[in-house]
Amino acid sequence: MRRMVSSRFVVAVSALSTVLGCASNDARTALEARVGALEQKVAELEAAPAASASAAVARCDKYLDATVPPDTKFTHTVPFEIGEDTVVVGDRIQITEVLGTRDRFEQGGMYLVRGEYTLSSADEASLGFSVTATRKGEGCTRGNGRRGSQRIKRGVGTFELAAPVLYDGHPHVYFRDQGQSAGGVYFGSGEFLKK
Question: What is the CA radius of gyration of the chain?
């Protein structure tokens, strides 16, 4: 985005410079003011990613403990539907079973999801299970690295991941490659399903 804005700006300034050479004093003054305004806008656009990152950090001043204790008993089979699927072509996440400490998706429950994956878009990635908050300012968690994600390699395999539902949101299993989301599958029921 930054390169695209900067390159468009350079082209625009070059064109305006040509026009300025041929313009009257009044027209030149107006065009110089416009160039100044455009330079200010480009500076704001280039600063926007840093401001967004600061806002994201600021909204996470409260973290919830998402630890799933190793002795957690998932005694209920939880009915689920598959929702939005953003997995890239060639990769696959298939959820085969959801077990829970509650018999349905609800805040306060812990859930274990099992399934199969195919990873062909990268040599290795992380496969994770989390809940995307439906309200801004929620969804900041810590403590579930061992049960909530696993490293996988290119090919086909199975997974078993666990996470709690600590706020209203949408459960999903997703690929993460080099720190970036690489698509996932939402699952759940009712208000806990992103379609």
Answer: 24
> What's at 8, amino acid-wise?
R
Gap between the Cα atoms of 154 and 6, Å rounded: 38
Nearest residue to 88 via CA among 115, 122, 114: 122
pLDDT tens profile 152-183: 999 999 999 999 999 999 999 999 988 888 89
Query: Hey, what amino acid is at 35?
Result: V
Of 176, 173, 181, 175, nearest in space to 84 by CA? 173
Q: Residue 150 corresponds to which tokens in the numbers above?
A: 């696993």
- Domain 65-192 sits in CATH 3.10.50: no
pTM recorded for the entire structure: 0.69
Q: Outline where DSSP puts E strands in the chain.
A: 64-65, 76-77, 81-85, 92-100, 110-133, 141-142, 149-164, 169-177, 180-188
- 108: exposed, middle or buried (Cβ count in 10 Å: 0-12, 13-18, 19+): exposed
d(CA 165, CA 69): 14
Please return the burial class of 23, using the count of CB atoms within 10 Å of its CB with bins 0-12, 13-18 and 19+.
middle
